[in-house]
Design brief:
The chain is mostly helical and about 300 residues long. The protein has seven helices and no strands.
Length: about 300
């Protein structure tokens, strides 16, 4: 009887040992599985972030490319024409606004899916665009005001059709718009030089910072060329911030060949006065045509 009780106790100990071992193995395996699931989820999250940033990198590159293209289109227009009328201006002004809105839309995506350093890199570009768009808008407004003032003079002379270009009429138009036209062309020269020599180079440099932030996130490494471009940014920012254009003598002459001029060009000599007056008269004529189209609802293609 005593021996049987002893055997029973021994079997219980074995059962408890086996159950304990099984429980330990099961709990251990659960922990192991949990670790696998944790690292699997972590890897999937990291993979998603990488893939998402590849998409954002491509999209952002396209947005910046469109911005640079818009700058180049306006610079080309300012090279080809001078004394821009509203009809010449309105499309490129709209294009600039569209470029800004694309940047804002893209930035909103970065707010959802990306990191501060990448957001700051697109903010820097947007700050340049905002500043330049304000200047472009002001110049466009000047253009509209000159056209509208000439339109009022024409309408007062004859509300039904384009009046005859008498000496008195032309003199009235010239007197009323003399200072405004000079201020307008000085502003246009400033805008051309700023966009060409300061803003576009800065946007192109800031794009390299944008590239750098993404390459860092995607572990793509940094090239020597990229490092060199990044080192140029502070100098370009300083030049852009400090740029100031002083009104020049003979601004209409400068406008007529600014493609070949530098921002600090000064023109001297009384012989240039006739040339300056001639170019000013040409621009005034452009605005008279522009005002006629608006005032009398003429075909816009008349200026083409």
């Amino acid at each position: 009887m005593h021996e049987e009780t002893k055997n029973t106790g021994y079997r219980k100990d074995i059962v408890l040992l086996i159950v304990g071992t099984l429980l330990t193995a099961i709990i251990g395996s659960i922990g192991y599985i949990s670790k696998i699931e944790y690292f699997d989820k972590k890897n999937k999250t990291e993979l998603y972030i990488i893939e998402k940033h590849k998409e954002l990198f491509d999209e952002g590159t396209g947005v910046i490319k469109n911005t640079k293209k818009t700058y180049k289109k306006l610079i080309h227009l300012l090279k080809k024409n001078y004394g821009l009328t509203p009809q010449e201006y309105e499309k490129i002004y709209k294009d600039f606004w569209d470029a800004k809105l694309k940047i804002i839309e893209y930035r909103n995506k970065l707010e959802k899916f990306s990191f501060d350093d990448i957001i700051y890199s697109i903010d820097n570009i947007m700050n340049v665009v905002d500043n330049d768009l304000a200047l472009i808008g002001l110049h466009f407004k000047q253009s509209e005001m000159i056209r509208d003032e000439i339109g009022r003079i024409l309408y007062n002379a004859n509300p039904k059709k384009i009046p005859e270009a008498t000496d008195n009429l032309m003199k009235n138009i010239e007197i009323k718009n003399n200072k405004e036209l000079t201020d307008f062309i000085n502003f246009e020269n400033m805008l051309y030089f700023k966009l060409s020599f300061y803003s576009l180079p800065l946007v192109e440099a800031l794009e390299r910072n944008f590239d750098y932030q993404f390459r860092k996130r995607l572990n793509l490494g940094i090239t020597n060329t990229l490092t060199k471009k990044l080192n140029e940014i502070p100098k370009l920012v300083e030049r852009w911030k400090l740029y100031k254009y002083n009104d020049k003598n003979y601004p209409f002459v400068i406008a007529s060949f600014r493609t070949y001029a530098a921002p600090d060009l000064n023109m001297e000599g009384d012989l240039l006065k006739n040339k300056d007056d001639f170019e000013k008269a040409n621009i005034l004529l452009k605005f008279i045509i522009s005002a006629s189209i608006t005032t009398y609802n003429l075909d816009k293609n008349i200026t083409k």
